[in-house]
Amino acid sequence: MTSLARNRAPRPTWLLTVGSPGRPAIATLRIRRTELGIEEEITFTAGYGADEEAPLDAIESLAEMLATRHGLTSMIASLRTARRDLTVPPRLEAPPVPIAFTLGPDSVHDIGRTHASRPPLNLRPAQLGPAARPALRYLLGDGTKAPAWTVLQQLIRHLKKAQMPGEGESAARRFESVFRAGEIALVPFDSVQPGPIRDAFGTQGQEQTDKDEAAPTRLAASDLQQRRGSA
User: Fold this and answer.
1) Cα–Cα distance, 37 to 195 (Å, whole number)
2) Tally of CA atoms within 13 A in the half-sphere of 161 that contains its CB
3) In degrees rounded to 5, what are phi and psi of residue 57?
4) Per-position DSSP letters for 23-71, written without gaps between them
5) I want to staple 225 with a disulfide (CB 3.0 to 4.6 A). Which of 24, 62, 73, 165 is the partner?
């Protein structure tokens, strides 16, 4: 993938991969060159049945690994009720509910550790990685309560009030990059429509069954951004 992206540069590269009927999953990766360096935007969605438990406990360790080893900028994890095979019916479905929002160590540094650690909410982030330059993970809920969107909205607005280092267009772009994973949270929950909040998932040759239709299942998803290298 690295060679493909390099050969296509400076054009952006968008990649798609899917799982199997035994473990339905869809992941997209968008790679592009910006003034800040090479940016990667990843969306990963996995389907779990009614008799399966989504591995929510793995989200924290995933966030820590990405933050300490892979230059994580920001990440949002969410849960929604949907079909296990990731197909999308032609009707309105419930939106995902956020579980956690993570800021990478560089993002925490740019925003300011004190400001990022003290949102005006009943919410205190957990530190991930080295204490000298940690990432921050904000636990928003268990994915079952829609008011978690309001909490995420308020958190994002608080973080965006920070004065980012630097001036001009470069600082503004860096600031925008930090919050790309959480940008959907800036849409008022009451006005959310199907288009902005879900991807048009396809199938992998697996036929939808009446059982799937009657018993929608839990779907875990995460969106994350990484910034690597220099321009």
Assistant:
1) 30
2) 11
3) -65, -20
4) EEEEEEEEEEEETTEEEEEEEEEEE--TTS---TTHHHHHHHHHHHHS-
5) 73
Q: Which amino acid is at 53?
A: E
How many whole angstroms separate alpha carbon 221 and alpha carbon 80?
8
Q: Domain ranges in the chain?
A: 48-201+214-226
Tokens 């800040």 belong to residue: 36
pLDDT at 231: 32
Listed residue (90, 83, 45, 54) closest to 214, CA to CA: 83
Query: Residue type at 92?
Result: L
Contacts of 153 (CB under 8 A, 6+ apart): 185, 186, 188, 189
Task: Output the pLDDT for position 225.
Answer: 54
Residues 107-126: b if buried by 16+ CB within 10 A, e if exposed: bbebbeeeebeebeeebebe
Count of C-beta atoms within a 10 Å radius of residue 77: 27
Rounded CA gap, 162 and 157, in Å? 9
With a cut of 70, which residues of the chain have pLDDT below it? Answer: 163-231
Q: Please tell me whether residue 100 adopts helix, strand or coil conformation.
A: strand
pTM of the full predicted structure?
0.75
Q: Which two tokens stand for residue 36?
A: 């800040």
